[in-house]
From TrEMBL:
Protein name: Bug family tripartite tricarboxylate transporter substrate binding protein
Lineage of the species this protein comes from: Bacteria, Pseudomonadati, Pseudomonadota, Betaproteobacteria, Burkholderiales
Family designation: Belongs to the UPF0065 (bug) family.
Highest rank taxon of the organism: Bacteria
PANTHER family, A to Z: BLR1237 PROTEIN (PTHR42928:SF5), TRICARBOXYLATE-BINDING PROTEIN (PTHR42928)
CDD domains: PBP2_Bug_TTT (cd07012)
Gene3D superfamilies from the UniProt entry: Bordetella uptake gene, domain 1, Periplasmic binding protein-like II
Pfam families, per database record: TctC
Natural source organism: Polaromonas aquatica
Length: 341
């Protein structure tokens, strides 16, 4: 997206260039720019970051996005040398947080950690919304990915997805998820379409509250990232009946893959790091270098792995931005097919 990557510094340098006499050196040009109050970005890049960075999470504490932010917060602060402050701004399937970042100054001090729900799906399912992913934010890199999961209250006495579908044909099965029009809402709609079952998709402001209600019996279960459900599955408070990976996970050999009964039910969620669209490339690259450095650390990888995440192997911003653009279009076609647009 070259047109969006033009920096304020480029504009400033161009402005100085129109004022500078012929033959002036680059050093003199930059010095002249600084006298005019047009600080060259090279100076900014050398000192960035010089104050705390806000990491916006478009969900309440307790879900997978907040988990990812908390894992990254301290090691990223260590590498960049400034505090990283997690800022939860839940609502509208994460779009509220994403819009906040999209409108923030493009200086690298306000970043977004998000899933496809808030950057690929939400902006396309909210008619008239002024936020457009491809125009208003830019990708830094993917952090990690993981399969989705269906987890239920153990009181249902159900062991697999086929039995849950059978139950749904006798009465509606209520599954909580983190907001209408999101990845999990889409999964429940796909589940109903593929199986012919009767599933009610119940929106919440985040996975934490949905999981609480599933444990308490106010819901039959949840459609979620695997990570937030895992500790409750291990403690017996929830029961995983399916994961949406291609096959069973080596770490959960007793949990069936949805594809064993319904081959079309394959889905992965991911976490990505984003910035406002006009953030200078030098800042994007600096944050990406720090991210890639910490994702190789054993302690960071272990935390993601324990939550059933696969740490990203994407090389950098260009690859991630191309992926996000492609996924935005693919998800748009799927949403239209489901009648969600």
């Amino acid at each position: 997206m070259p047109d969006r990557m033009t920096t304020d510094c480029d504009a400033s340098t161009a402005q100085v260039s129109t004022l500078a006499p012929a033959g002036i050196s680059r050093r003199d040009l930059l010095a002249w720019g600084s006298l005019l109050g047009l600080a060259p970005f090279e100076a900014f890049a050398d000192t960035y970051p010089s104050r705390p960075i806000g990491l916006v999470v478009g969900a309440p504490p307790g879900g997978s996005v907040d988990f990812g932010a908390r894992v990254l917060m301290r090691p990223l602060a260590e590498v960049l040398g400034v505090p990283i402050i997690v800022d939860n701004k839940p609502g509208a399937t994460g779009v509220i947080g994403a819009k906040f970042v999209a409108k923030a100054p493009a200086d690298g001090y306000t970043l977004l950690i998000a899933t496809p729900t808030s950057v690929l799906i939400g902006p396309q399912t909210m008619p008239g919304d002024s936020y457009n992913t491809l125009r208003d934010i830019v990708g830094i890199n993917m952090v990690a990915k993981n399969p989705l999961a269906i987890a239920i209250n153990p009181a249902l006495k159900i062991d697999n997805l086929k039995d849950l579908v059978a139950l749904s044909r006798t009465r509606p099965v209520t599954l909580g998820q983190s907001g209408s029009g999101g990845s999990f809402d889409l999964l429940i709609k796909q589940l109903a379409k593929v199986t012919g079952g009767n599933f009610d998709s119940i929106p919440y402001k985040g996975m934490g509250p949905a999981i609480t209600d599933a444990i308490g019996g106010q819901l039959d279960g949840v459609a979620s990232d695997l990570g937030p459900c895992l500790p409750f599955h291990q403690s017996g408070k929830l029961k995983l009946v399916a994961v949406t990976s291609d096959k069973r996970l080596a770490s959960l050999p007793n949990v069936p893959a949805a594809t064993e009964s319904y081959p079309a039910l394959v889905a992965y969620n991911w976490l990505g790091l984003f910035a406002p669209a006009k953030t200078p490339p030098e800042v994007i690259n600096k944050v990406n270098a720090a991210l890639m450095k910490i994702l190789t650390r054993d302690d960071v990888k272990a935390q993601f792995t324990q939550a059933a995440n696969i740490v990203s192997s994407m090389k950098g911003p260009a690859e991630f931005q191309a992926f996000a653009t492609s996924e935005y279009k693919r998800m748009g076609a799927m949403l239209k097919e489901q009648g969600m647009i």
